[in-house]
Amino acid sequence: MKNIVVVGTQWGDEGKGKVVDLLAPAFDIVARYQGGHNAGHTVIVGDRKFILRLIPSGILRDTGTCVLGNGVVVDAQAFLDEVDGLEALGIEVQGRLLVSNRAHLILPHYRSVERVSEERRGDDRVGTTMRGIGPAYEQKTGRRGIRVGDALNPERLRATLKSSRDEAATWLEGSEPELSDAALDAFLEAAVKLAPFVVDTGRFLNDAVDDGKRVLLEGAQGTMLDVDHGSYPFVTSSSSTAGGACTGTGLPPTRVSGALGIAKAYTTRVGAGPFPTELLDDRGRHLQDRGQEFGSVTGRPRRTGWFDVPVARYSARINGLTSLALTKLDVLDELDSVSVCVEYRTADGPCDSIPSSIKDYERVEPILEHMDGWRTSTRGISKLEDLPAAARAYVDALSSLVGVEIGLISTGPERDETIVVPGGRVAAWAEN
Ligand code: IMP
């Protein structure tokens, strides 16, 4: 059994899509376990660029099944648009894509609820993606949500949807376009079209594993955006860490044997909240430009900073990482020196863990160590021995500081701009 979880180790956007795309041929099923169309996975194949928000990037390979697990929240229209987009590019989707009957639906008025909720927070706003994700999870845990399986019964769905809309209208204290009858009808039309994709995916996944099939569990966002373990309250509303893979799919922990963490060679974050290694100077702008650090869902510029070892170590612990994939190494190519945060400085002295209180976390300062830059291109390098010595030293230092092997290094956005470290875990997982 070699079922693995792929998880973001920072604040999302680490490049999970590319790594999942690379590993997908060795797996029979790729299953997303949380989040919704707030995620954005960019995969580049030849001269074609795909931005997938909801559907796992495994769909871009010719074979294999993709699953949206029960932990995902589904915007029916966004899902159908993505399916149409893939089909227009000649990618076979029908029969290869399943949605859990226990996943929750994002209702049209959730976007208005989210906008007003963010406005009311004032300076404490989270900077969410405005996709209705937070309200969908709030309704789910408040036991007022509507599951995808309910879309199979349009009459029941219409009745529940109306009462949810009326409740939202009171809370919103006014009329909103997303509360109109037309919006409700459009939603019902889209939701009904989900029917051919809907199954009991927990049953499907466990039966597949019984039959010897291999499953890759794909997380969205990252460890520091996890609702329990992240920089709360500046987090998303689901369990993006490895534990969420089990609750979000129905595949038990005893059926998962490894966790691959994805980490950028530096750090980025979109939205508000603490970011100890943030660079607010030219170096930060350089990383933003070279790394094309603009959100693939919202287009917002991403904040940038140095690699944060306390975050990576915390992530290794929470997710039980067995290997790390280091992405975007080439973005650092032009720097004279590269810094790494090895610990935090606090009023009580050095600290190597993540404070649970956001007020404490906002006050930490990074203790940086500096290393020589390599000032030569690593773009497209696909063999470990071809990396310049200083780049190799940087990668080795990160691995020993975090205490996890680095099994893959990405040196560019294309599939073949990748080093799979010989003898490492990723090389083993990638074997058919
Ligand atoms: P929400 O997920 O839209 O509720 O947004 C909550 C926080 O998570 C905000 O700071 C978003 O910017 C952040 N976020 C959500 N999805 C992503 C992602 O895919 N990458 C990076 N940040 C994300």
Features:
ten-stranded mixed β-sheet, binds inosinic acid, Adenylosuccinate Synthetase, Chain A, domain 1, 3 domains, 20 strands, Adenylosuccinate Synthetase, subunit A, domain 2
Topology:
Blueprint (H helix, E strand, L loop, with lengths): L3 E5 L7 H8 L5 E4 L8 E5 L2 E5 L12 E4 L4 E2 L1 H13 L8 E4 L3 E2 L4 H12 L11 H9 L12 H19 L8 H12 L5 E2 L1 H10 L4 E4 L23 H6 L10 E7 L2 E3 L12 H9 L12 E3 L1 E2 H11 L3 E5 L9 E10 L2 E3 L6 H6 L1 E8 L16 H14 L3 E5 L7 E3 L4 H5 L3
Parallel strand pairs: 1-10, 1-11, 2-5, 2-10, 5-7, 6-8, 7-9, 11-15, 14-16, 15-19
Antiparallel strand pairs: 3-4, 12-13, 16-17, 16-18, 19-20
The structure holds inosinic acid (IMP).
Inosinic acid (IMP) binds next to α4.
Give an overview of the whole structure.
The chain is an alpha/beta fold and 432 residues long. It folds into three domains: 4-104 and 197-258, 3-Layer(aba) Sandwich (Adenylosuccinate Synthetase, Chain A, domain 1), CATH 3.40.440.10; 105-192, Adenylosuccinate Synthetase, subunit A, domain 2, CATH 1.10.300; 263-429, Alpha-Beta Complex (Adenylosuccinate Synthetase, Chain A, domain 3), CATH 3.90.170.10. The chain is built from 13 helices and 20 strands. The strands form five sheets. A ten-stranded mixed sheet has the order 9-7-5-2-10-1-11-15-19-20, sandwiched between helices. Strands 14, 16, 17 and 18 form a four-stranded mixed sheet that branches. It has a two-stranded antiparallel sheet with strand order 3-4. Strand 3 (41-45) and strand 4 (48-52) form a beta hairpin. The longest helix has 19 residues, at 154-172. 50% of the residues are buried. The mean pLDDT is 94. The structure holds inosinic acid. Inosinic acid (IMP) is lined by residues 11-13, 38-40, 126-129, 131, 133-134, 220-221, 225, 234, 236-237, 270-271.
